[in-house]
Amino acid sequence: MKILINEKGKKFVAGADDLHTDHGYIKKEEITSSKSGDILKTHLGREFRVLEANINDYIELMDRRCSIILSKDLGVMAAYTGLGCGQRVVEAGTGAGAATIFMANIVGETGHVYSYELREDFSQIADKNVKGFGLENVTLKCQDVAEGIDEEDVDLVFLDLPKPWDVVENARDCLKSGGYLAAYTPYIDQVKLLTRILKKREFSDLKSLECLVREIEVKDKGVRPKTRMTGHTGYLTFGRKV
Amino acid sequence: MKILINEKGKKFVAGADDLHTDHGYIKKEEITSSKSGDILKTHLGREFRVLEANINDYIELMDRRCSIILSKDLGVMAAYTGLGCGQRVVEAGTGAGAATIFMANIVGETGHVYSYELREDFSQIADKNVKGFGLENVTLKCQDVAEGIDEEDVDLVFLDLPKPWDVVENARDCLKSGGYLAAYTPYIDQVKLLTRILKKREFSDLKSLECLVREIEVKDKGVRPKTRMTGHTGYLTFGRKV
Amino acid sequence: MKILINEKGKKFVAGADDLHTDHGYIKKEEITSSKSGDILKTHLGREFRVLEANINDYIELMDRRCSIILSKDLGVMAAYTGLGCGQRVVEAGTGAGAATIFMANIVGETGHVYSYELREDFSQIADKNVKGFGLENVTLKCQDVAEGIDEEDVDLVFLDLPKPWDVVENARDCLKSGGYLAAYTPYIDQVKLLTRILKKREFSDLKSLECLVREIEVKDKGVRPKTRMTGHTGYLTFGRKV
Amino acid sequence: MKILINEKGKKFVAGADDLHTDHGYIKKEEITSSKSGDILKTHLGREFRVLEANINDYIELMDRRCSIILSKDLGVMAAYTGLGCGQRVVEAGTGAGAATIFMANIVGETGHVYSYELREDFSQIADKNVKGFGLENVTLKCQDVAEGIDEEDVDLVFLDLPKPWDVVENARDCLKSGGYLAAYTPYIDQVKLLTRILKKREFSDLKSLECLVREIEVKDKGVRPKTRMTGHTGYLTFGRKV
Questions:
Q1: Under an 8 A CB cutoff, do D228 and B226 touch?
Q2: What residues in B contact A221, CB-CB < 8 Å?
Q3: Residue D162 touches chain C, beta carbons under 8 Å
Q4: Distance CA D83, CA B217 (A)
Q5: Domain tRNA (adenine(58)-N(1))-methyltransferase catalytic subunit TRM61 C-terminal: where (chains A, B, C, D) (predicted)?
Q6: What is the per-residue pLDDT for A64?
Q7: Which residues contact D163 (CB under 8 A, 6 or more apart)?
Q8: I need a labelling partner for C4 at 20 to 30 A (CA). Which of B176, C44, C126, D230 fits?
Q9: pLDDT digits 0-9 by tens, D148-206
């Protein structure tokens, strides 16, 4: 997928049609025949640079009607669970599909992401987003993960649900030995209850954490952390089936 | 690769020989014929659970003679650069190979990690570690990355060097359009200088950040962040070739 | 000084005149004869509660035309320097006087705050603010602290200046043995240079730090840190004359 | 009170007797007749510098048999409650008296700290510590604060107790209008329960927070936050009587 970047760094998705912007339009033929690094001009003479979209461009520009998990949390989740190429993952709930796309990008064509979502409207947005990025290793299921998980022997179950404890038993059944459950929850009360259930179900290597990212501002007059930061997103809780 | 876990959660690598522990030994034949989830007994009757080692078990147990980058920083680096299956990565320096193994696990067999290291002793440790994990998508090079990078059109250049600015020009040459440079540096002074050079070399999407992970302690008497935490590891600086 | 709080928690200063609000007015006679805890009604029947203003109400409501140092940083500064009743303090620059008032509130009538400010407009705002709170232990000086400090044998020199290093020698001269220099600076580069100069001038107990406050949101649906937080204000650097 | 500092920066209290150290002794007559800034020599010729102890020296060196609240938390507590010279404070529990001494240092002779402690052994340590610093504005009470507070019209009630909610009603009774309750608790569960009770008892301006201090390491090879830090001490919860 191509994106076009204007002189101010603003990014546009190059879709199936001509690109219309505040600074004029570019014909779709020009876009189609361009390659990454080319500079195209609108009919008003403004320059746009062509770039092959990577996953972060895509997630930034896609339809994000419901709130998505930030990169920092997905990255830490992937690192702590050892997510890698070829793995099979079960996710619930799908939401707009940001985590789905993130994980599908890592597990690749030899792996697979099965993602459960109760709400049909979210599942449809996610479907559009997943297909738009050209992923063929994702199966979206509009069904309740608490009522059963169809897959077996998966490497990771990733839960972004209000009540992840309801799924612990199903998650345990579908995980392979040594596989991970990871849950993302905004409230500390959820961490507490989930941990209790994970212990009861004999998950090992229990760990809960919070990841804070501080951006650093490097300017001529000095270096400092940015004066604004995200104060909290959610906690990550991990357990491992042994 | 198999690991064996004793009753207290301590992990042991199952090597080519019998496993000798404080609690007795287990014969290699037993280990070889076991599968994940089995419980083996030492000649003293103590139980050890067999587990297929995942990447984090392995990095934890491998020879780590030089300091390694923590999971949190690797995870955030991977997420911010969109690292995924099938990508080609250049790394410098290799060190003990923890980041190498982490990235090789993600890019998979259709991708590749080329890792440069000046010091021969480190390169040898890394070679042992990479091979021990069974990775076949890694090329270790005991040569100075500042003198040239052999690869072209790579997705990511990851630098864990005292003077990453010396490599910015070479990194730019070997990156594909839209590819990322990411550098890990302990000192803020390094962030400052590197950012200046990245700007000069027209990298875009410059970003520097610090990732803090706070573990949460969930006990019967209450929930709180752990009283000890890692105060600082290093900064991550990102730039993108456009 | 009295403040009046409406039903939504919004605070108003009770000045010399009638109080006019969106919800009607209250006559000054009523305000004058009221005491803390009373409830007054506007001519439209809306209730306002009378409260004796404390220092934080006052700083919140006073003229804050230039940016002020947050409570968290002032509190940590006071605690690390052992600021207490009866101490004598030199401050530069005054700004709107928030730190001045904070310190004057602690040192009390047996102590004193001498505050230097180059800009006359700031000094006038500070003068109004200090007098408005009824403090009689503050001397404001519209003069350059780098050209000399008139006081001797002071307990604390507190610097909120772009170039605090220019004042280190003067600060040393005016401090009593065992007294503290404390400086507030937004940039890490300032911390670095100031520390070098403090070392040269043989200050002991050098320490630099950053204070982060995370507010906790306690709601029925759960407890978590607030999703927005101040990412950075400034660093505090301390040295002690021995 | 005098302290003596050796060449390595280690501090010693100058008591009623000769000072004996690893590097020789100094006679009490010499110490008594010395003044701040003097350098005394042991009989082995090693130099010790005399310094008038400030409150932080004292708290560092005093008998701290039970864990004490760190300066950062005391400083933020004082700043958020507007603690100042002349105020009257009720504290529970006293512990070793660190917070007692901190607050007594700020409220001065025109103010007073009344401190409740159930355990007699703690109360005795605190008594020794408070008297040792020469404070005359402190009253220690070895009694249960949940059974009643003798004082009235106080500016601040500061609670460092396992179950601060048991004291909320008594605290409300003894506070003056506009006065603050502040509680220090290690667990988030305590914050939750206390907040609920404070709401029920109609305290206003409810706020809970956590204060993190990151020390900055300034060395020739670079500047960075220290690699070790205190991950968590306790939460501070505030409410105001209106």
A1: no
A2: none
A3: no
A4: 33
A5: 62-221
A6: 85
A7: D190
A8: C126
A9: 999 999 999 999 999 999 999 999 999 999 999 999 999 999 999 999 999 999 999 99
- A100-149 pLDDT, tens digit per residue, is 999 999 999 999 999 999 999 999 999 999 999 999 999 999 999 999 99
Long-range contacts of B160-164 (CB under 8 A, 24+ apart): B160/B69, B160/B91, B160/B92, B160/B93, B160/B95, B160/B99, B160/B184, B161/B92, B161/B93, B162/B190, B163/B190, B164/B190, B164/B194, B164/B237
Q: What angle do CA A207, A212, A218 make, to 5 degrees?
A: 150
Flag whether residue C224 sits within 8 Å of chain D, measured between CB atoms.
Answer: no
CATH number of A2-53: 3.10.330.20
- Residues contacting B184, CB < 8 A, separation 6+: B69, B73, B77, B158, B159, B160, B234, B235, B236
- Confidence (pLDDT) at A14: 80
Tracing tokens 């004359």 back to the chain, one arrives at C241
Pairing type for strands B222-225 and B204-219 reads antiparallel
Place of tokens 């000086």: C141
DSSP C121-158: HHHHHHHHHHHHTT--SEEEE-S-GGG-----SEEEEE
Query: Which of B52, B84, B177 faces A37 most closely, judged by CB atoms?
Result: B177
Interface touch A231/C215, C-beta < 8 Å? yes
* Phi, psi for C148 (deg, rounded to 5): 145, 145
- With a CB cutoff of 8 Å and minimum separation 6, the contacts of A121 are none
Query: Residue C224: which of A225, A230, A232 has the nearest Cβ?
Result: A232
Say which CATH class D59-241 falls into. alpha beta
Backbone angle region of D66, left / alpha / beta, with phi > 0 → left and psi within -120 to 50 → alpha = beta
Domain boundaries, chain C: 2-53, 58-240
Are the beta carbons of B82 and A207 separated by less than 8 Å? no
Can you give chain D as a three-state secondary structure string? CEEEECCCCCEEECCCCCEEECCEEECHHHHHHCCCCCEEECCCCCEEEEEECCHHHHHHHCCCCCCCCCHHHHHHHHHHHCCCCCCEEEEECCCCCHHHHHHHHHHCCCCEEEEECCCHHHHHHHHHHHHHCCCCCEEEECCCHHHCCCCCCEEEEEECCCCHHHHHHHHHHHEEEEEEEEEEECCHHHHHHHHHHHHHCCEEEEEEEEEEEEEEEEECCEEEECCEEECCCCEEEEEEEC
Cβ within 8 Å, pair C79-D82: no
| CATH code at A63-241 | 3.40.50.150
Distance from CA of D80 to the nearest CA of B (A): 22
Measured CA to CA, the distance from residue C61 to residue C66 in angstroms comes to 13
The CATH number of C58-240, from 1.10.290.10, 3.40.50.1110, 3.40.50.150, 3.90.1150.10, is 3.40.50.150
Please report the pLDDT score of residue A51 as a whole number.
Answer: 85
CA B104 to chain centre: 9
Measure Cα distances from D24 to A20, A21, A171, D42, D46 in Å.
85, 82, 68, 5, 7
Q: Which residues of A touch B82 (CB under 8 A)?
A: 54-56, 105
Query: How many Å apart are CA B79 and CA D170, to the nearest integer?
Result: 52
Tell me the count of A-C CB pairs closer than 8 A: 62
Q: What's the complex ipTM?
A: 0.93
Identity of residue A220 = D
Please list, in sequence order, all residues whose beta carbon lies within 8 angstroms of the beta carbon of residue B123, skipping any fewer than 6 positions away.
B94, B117, B140, B141, B142
Indicate if A63-241 has the same CATH topology as A2-53: no
Cβ pairs bridging C and D (under 8 Å): 174
Candidates C65, C55, C63, C60; CA nearest to C104 is C55
